[in-house]
């Protein structure tokens, strides 16, 4: 988890894209596929959380400026 906390959104997205590319490789073993899938799910969740926080901040700014 500490690694994810140090990643920026862009870095996490690049890592997620890399995982997807590796999963598309026909020569990957089942074990490696499962490990990559697990890592990909974590990266996806991490990216989603960052986006949700950004959306909340944007909504707060919009509300503060419409009052």
Number of strands: 0
Overall body shape: rod-shaped
CATH class: Mainly Alpha
End-to-end CA span: 39 Å
User: How many DSSP helices?
Assistant: 3
The structural domain count equals: 1
Q: What is the CATH architecture assignment? A: Orthogonal Bundle
Helical content class? over 70%
Strand percentage lies at under 5%
Secondary-structure element order, N to C: HHH
Low-confidence stretches: none
Spatial extent as radius of gyration: 16 Å
What is the quaternary state of this protein? single chain
Question: Class by helix and strand content?
Answer: mainly alpha
Account of the protein in words:
The protein is an all-alpha fold and 67 residues long. Helices cover 85% and strands 0% of the residues. Helix 2 runs antiparallel to helix 3. It is rod-shaped.
Note the topology.
Elements: H1 2-6, H2 9-23, H3 30-66
Pfam families: Exonuc_VII_S
Keywords: Cytoplasm, Exonuclease, Hydrolase, Nuclease
EC number: 3.1.11.6
Compact overview of the structure:
By secondary structure, this protein is an all-alpha fold. Helices cover 85% and strands 0% of the residues. The longest helix is centred in the last third of the chain and has 37 residues, at 30-66.
Keywords:
67 residues, mainly alpha, Helix Hairpins, 3 helices, rod-shaped, cytoplasm
């Amino acid at each position: 988890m500490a690694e994810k906390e140090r990643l920026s959104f862009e870095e996490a997205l690049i890592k997620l894209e890399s995982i997807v590319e590796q999963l598309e490789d026909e020569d990957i073993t089942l074990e490696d596929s499962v490990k990559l899938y697990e890592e990909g799910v974590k990266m996806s969740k991490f990216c989603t959380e960052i986006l949700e926080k950004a959306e909340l901040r944007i909504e707060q700014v919009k509300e503060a400026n419409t009052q």
